[in-house]
Design brief:
homodimer, mainly alpha, elongated, DNA-binding, 2 domains, Arc Repressor Mutant, subunit A
DNA sequence: GAGCGCATGTAAAGGGTTACATGATTCT
DNA sequence: AGAATCATGTAACCCTTTACATGCGCTC
């Protein structure tokens, strides 16, 4: 489970409320690890019970800000240093590609064009954001620099996918004669 | 939920058992949409109850092969054509990057080097597989061509991430003086 | 005082993983 | 005969999403 450690990581930057954390997930973080507020609030309760975070202050509108404890800081660091990275992705976009052969050629063309646009726009937006970091508009703290690195990955992945969508449209791989006929081929298609 | 439609998509290629499908997920598909056998078996039961698939045959070792029905084929196509793509990813690799500032510099260096190696190797393996497709070793069916497109995305993403990991190691963004000190900065780091 | 955004939560359902369990067939 | 692999399933638990619910504080 990464959410637990993600929350600890965010709280390592400074105290924050569940609402604050949910906002950060809905922005940058949510594009690589979605999380909605009910999950965040309940995870915070568990983290507090485990002594990894504690209530720092209460504000207006019964706002509760949490602060990370020493035990919590140790735990994030342990996660980062010792727990193996899970390299499996979950990307519906690519999952769908395996089934493109079931789509009508016009639908597929439109789909790929829309994907290309989407990824190119996302990449451009992230690139613009990265540029503001490079101009120093967010300071030069360690956190900012780490975010810059994460941002770079986002830019490159979105650029790569935009390029892929363009390639897929241009390649004749999918435009051959038998494509888009009503029925699938019989048989599995395993090689000799 | 994508698994339901993924199973339908695979069964559209031809009849298969739960075991077969689990194997395909553990190979190529699992890298973009993980699924273990208990989930697959129980989903197959639900798909059969919904009339989207039916038992085609029973074989040795009480093997049960399923075949997609016309309703099932219609349903995958509807999914591909009408249901909006969910562009959110789930990538622990990138999620961690937001918290790199909490890592010891040596640990981070080693981590990034390992990531670069991993992605470069994965990209190379996928590229090799894609080449066998381009040499026609798997035929030229629609399915093969769709898989070729999915494969290309895998190659490009892994290449992009290998490049990113290399860039992250080379950039001085993370190697500045204050990195790796025991305590995080105080305060949130929001801009002016 | 009406409406909006802040802020927190609960409940229920759905999706996904891990552990456990079993039996059949093939290979050596 | 024993080991490996094929093949299916159940149970328990955990993670995640969606819907429902509530109240406070600020602004117009």
């Amino acid at each position: 489970m990464s959410l637990r450690h993600g929350l600890l990581g965010l709280l390592a930057e400074g105290p924050a409320s569940g609402y604050d954390l949910a906002r950060r997930f809905s922005q940058a973080l949510g594009s690589v690890w979605p999380a909605q507020h009910p999950q965040i609030y309940s995870e915070l309760v568990r983290l507090e019970a485990a002594g990894l975070i504690e209530v720092e202050s209460t504000g207006p509108r019964r706002r509760k800000a949490y602060r990370i404890t020493d035990a919590g800081l140790t735990e994030v660091r342990r996660w980062l240093a010792e727990v193996d990275v899970d390299h499996t992705f979950r990307m519906e976009v690519l999952f769908r590609a395996y089934f493109y052969w079931l789509m009508e050629p016009e639908d597929l063309k439109a789909h790929l064009a829309a994907e290309q646009r989407f990824f190119a726009e996302t990449a451009a937006a992230l690139r613009g954001y990265a540029d503001t970091k490079d101009r120093g508009e967010w300071g030069t703290s360690k956190q900012t620099r780490a975010m810059r690195i994460a941002l770079e990955a986002g830019v490159r992945i979105n650029e790569a996918l935009a390029g892929w969508a363009q390639w897929a449209q241009e390649t004749d791989v999918m435009t051959a004669e038998d494509f888009g006929t009503a029925k699938p081929d019989d048989g599995g298609g395993e090689p000799a």
